[in-house]
Amino acid sequence: MNIHDIGIDIIEIKRVDDAIKNNNRFLNKMFTDKEIEYFESKNLRIESIAGNFAAKEAISKSIGTGIRSFNFKDIEVLRDELGKPIVKTYNNLKQICIDYNVLEIKVSISHCKEYAVANAITIVKE
Ligand SMILES: CC(C)(COP(=O)(O)OP(=O)(O)OC[C@H]1O[C@@H](n2cnc3c(N)ncnc32)[C@H](O)[C@@H]1OP(=O)(O)O)[C@@H](O)C(=O)NCCC(=O)NCCS
């Protein structure tokens, strides 16, 4: 087991709030149906939405490409029964993970009043 790379992202929560208010397709463009279901279960709490957005950018950095050759919805960040984020990949990113021998992508999210941050680590087979 090896670390392929790490990634971090910080975002102003207000930017995500503005994006949602100014573009009624923003949520559907960036997030999977299951992520939107999770946000709805939290009454569309903006900190959680911004945290998931930061998580996707951090994950893209931990792959080493940024959001390139795959799109935001190829990354799905849900929560386990204790609230810990869990990462699933789809479509082009799923194939990239197979090509890179990725075993797991881990992500951690935090937020305060103004910012959401996320750290990601991509683990590959030796
Ligand atoms: C890489 C990316 C996620 C950065 O996110 P951002 O919100 O624009 O910028 P951030 O301030 O969070 O991060 C910038 C840092 O990311 C790091 N970074 C840049 N490319 C990277 C890569 N391929 N892998 C890992 N880290 C990368 C750099 O350290 C950079 O800081 P630096 O230029 O001072 O060295 C984003 O720009 C991206 O996905 N680019 C890919 C191509 C693109 O533009 N796609 C369209 C997206 S809508």
How many E strands?
5
Order of helices and strands: EHHHHEEHEE
CATH architecture: Alpha-Beta Complex
- Which segments are poorly predicted (pLDDT under 50) over 5 or more consecutive residues? none
Q: Report the average pLDDT across residues.
A: 97
Under CATH, the topology can be stated as: Ribosomal Protein L22, Chain A
* Overall SS class: alpha+beta
Level of helix content?
40-55%
Provide the CATH superfamily. Answer: 4'-phosphopantetheinyl transferase domain
Task: Supply the CATH class.
Answer: Alpha Beta
Largest β sheet strand count, sense and barrel closure: 3 strands, antiparallel
What small molecules does the structure contain?
coenzyme A
As for the number of domains, it is 1
Rg over C-alpha atoms, rounded to the nearest angstrom: 14 Å
Gross geometry: globular
What gap, in angstroms, lies between the N and C termini?
A: 5 Å
Q: How many helices does DSSP assign?
A: 5
The strands making up the biggest β-sheet line up spatially as 1-5-4
User: Approximately how much beta-strand content do the residues carry?
Assistant: 25-35%
Explain the overall architecture.
- The chain is α+β, with helices and mostly antiparallel strands and 126 residues long.
- The protein has a single domain, classed as 4'-phosphopantetheinyl transferase domain (Ribosomal Protein L22, Chain A, Alpha-Beta Complex), CATH 3.90.470.20.
- It is built from 5 helices and 5 strands.
- It has helices at residues 13-22, 26-30, 33-41, 46-63, 91-99; strands at 2-12, 75-79, 85-89, 102-111, 115-124.
- A 3-stranded antiparallel beta sheet has the order 1-5-4. It has a two-stranded antiparallel sheet with strand order 2-3.
- The radius of gyration is 14 Å and the shape is globular.
- The mean pLDDT is 97.
